[in-house]
Predict the structure.
Amino acid sequence: MTMRRRQLQELLVLLARVLAVIALVLLFCQPFIPINRQVVVTGGGLVNVLVDNSGSMQVLGQSQEQLRQEAITSGKALGRSYGATTRFKLIGQDHSSMQEAAYLTAVANQRASVRGWGNATTRQALQGGQQGPFYIVSDFQKSEMLPQSLQQIHTRENVILVPLVAKPAANIYVDSAWLNDAFVRAQANVALHIRLRNGGAAAIAACPVKVMLGNQQAATFQVSMGAGQATEVIAQIQLPDAKLARGRIITQDAPVNFDNTYYFTLQATAAIDVVEIGEEPATRAAYESEPLFTYAFAKPQAVDYGRLRRTNLVLVRELPRIEAGLREALVGVVRRGGSVVVVPSAGPASHATYHELFKGLGVGGEQWQDVAADLPERQAVLMPNARDPFFRDVFGAQPPRVAMPQVAPVLRLGQAGTDILRLRDGDAFLTQFSSGAGRAYIFAAPFAQAYSDFTTHALFVPVLYRMAMLSYQTDQLPAYRLSTPALALTVPSGEGQPVGQEASYRLVHDSATYIAGQRVQGGQLHLDVPAGMSAPGFYTLQHQGKVITTLAFNAAKQESELAAYSAAELRQLIGPNHPNVQVLENGAQPEKLARFRAAQTGQPLWRYCLLAALGCLLVEGLLLRFGRQRVAARAAMA
C-alpha cells in the first residue's frame, strides 16, 4: 500500500505541475470570453480620439471641474486602457499616430481651440475617413452639428460617443454690433448698437459690460437676462480722431470667458466727394461751407469722367441734353454704390435723353406734364415725416411749422420708388430709387426760379447734406466672424495685383502671417478667410509690407450657445441603423470608461489563469508536505 500511495502522490504532484504550467501559458496568452454581439476590430491597432477643448468646455461639470479637464482625464484613462502596442491619433491636434506615452502627453498639452466636435475634420472622420475605433469626448453642443449629420455616420468602424454633462451656467456674449449710419464723424457722438445674448441655461443679473476704444473706456453699463434671451443696447461713443480705432466690448461673466471680448473697428468717414453738372452751380455754397464735403462743378462738355468713377454723389441739374457717354458714366456711379441726383429740365426737347437715363437707372413709367412756359402752376410741398429714416436727426422731437416750398412739377414718376418729399395733390416731389448697389434721386421740378423756390428754402441744405451722407458707403464691416468664408474690400487705387504675380495680400496677427485665397476684380479685393485662423483679435491686411487696413475677427457665435445633446438625445438621433455607434453614459468617470473598454474585448480570463496557477502550486506544496509526513510515520511504525 505504501508504494501505491507514493505513486499516487507523484502522479498528483505531476498533474498539479502540468496544470500550473498550462495556467501560466494561458495567463500570458490573456484569454477572454467574447461578448455576444459582433465587435468590429480593424485599423491595425490604431485608435482615434477627439478630446474636445473648444470654448464651451469651460463650463463646470458634475465634478466641479471644467468640462475641458474632465475630457482630458477621460482621454488619459482611455489611453491607459489599451495595450502597449496600440497607437493613437488625436483628431484635430496632430495628423500622425503616436504611442501611449506620447499620446498621454499630447492630451494633457493640446492647444486651445475654438473647434469642437462639429468641425470639418470630425465630420469627415465620422463619415468614414478614419481607420480603427473613434472615441469622441465632448459636451456635444447642439449648435455645432445638425441632427441629420448624425445619420450619416459610417457603419464600418466602432464610434463611441462620450458625452460630458455640464451644470447650468449663464454665458453673455455679443451677438453683433453695428451702426445705423455709415457716416461717422470724429469727436461727435456715435450710436453703437450692441446686441447681447445669453447663450447659457441659467439667468444672469447685473452683468457688467464695458466698451473700450483703444485703451480708453468709452461706455459702461449692466445687463440682466434670462436663459436664451437677447437684448439690444445703444452705447454713445466718440472717435477721438480720423484714425482707425480699435474697439472692444468686454462682458464680465464666468466661468465661460472665451467669448468675453468682442473686437470691432471704427473709422471716421473721409470727405464725401460731390460733383455737380449743369450750366451754372446751384449747390456750391451749401457744400463748400461744410468741410465734410469736397465739391466740384463741371459743365456737361467738360466733365472729368475719371473723377466720376470714384465720386460719391453726382448731381445732374437741368441739362438740355444728356449725351450717351455721360449717361453711361452716371449708370456706372450707381452700379458701384454711389448716388445720382437728377433735376429735370422743363424743355420738351430733353425728354427723350432723360428717358434713356431713367431707363439706365432702373426708373420707369415717367410721365412728362405740359407746363405753360409763361406761368407754370405751383403747389406746396408737404411737411416731411420726421420719422422717415431719410430725415433722421434733421428735425427735433417735433418738426417746426414753417411755410413749405412752392414748386411746379414737370415730371410724374411711377410707384416703384420711395417718396421722400410729396406735394399736396399726393404726387412726389423727391423720389428715391434703388439702382444697382447705389441710389438714384429724382426731383419732379427744376430748380429754376420759375418752377421752384426750393433752393431758397431752409429745407434745401438738409436735403442736400442727407443725400450726400447716404451716398457714402463702406464695404468694411466693424467686425467679422472667423467662420466667415470670404469677404470683399475696396482696395486703394494702384494696389491691384498684376496678373501672374503670387498672392501679395496677407493677414497678420501678432507674429502669425496668413496668406489667403484672393483676387482683385473691379477695384475690390475678394479675400477668402484662411482655415488656419482660429484666434479672435485684430488682423492687419498688408500688401507688400504696407498696411492697408485693420480687420476685427471674433469667434463663431455658435460656440457661445451652450445647449448640448444629452446621452438619450444622441441615442435617439443615431437610431437603430448604426449598431457600431455607442453612447457611453457617465463616460467622464475614468473607471466607467475603463470598464467599457474591457467590455469591448469580452470578459478577460487572465486573473482566473493566475489564480489557477497559484492554486496548482499550492496543491503541489500540500501534497509534498503532508504526503511525505504520512509515509514517514507509517514506515516508523513498521
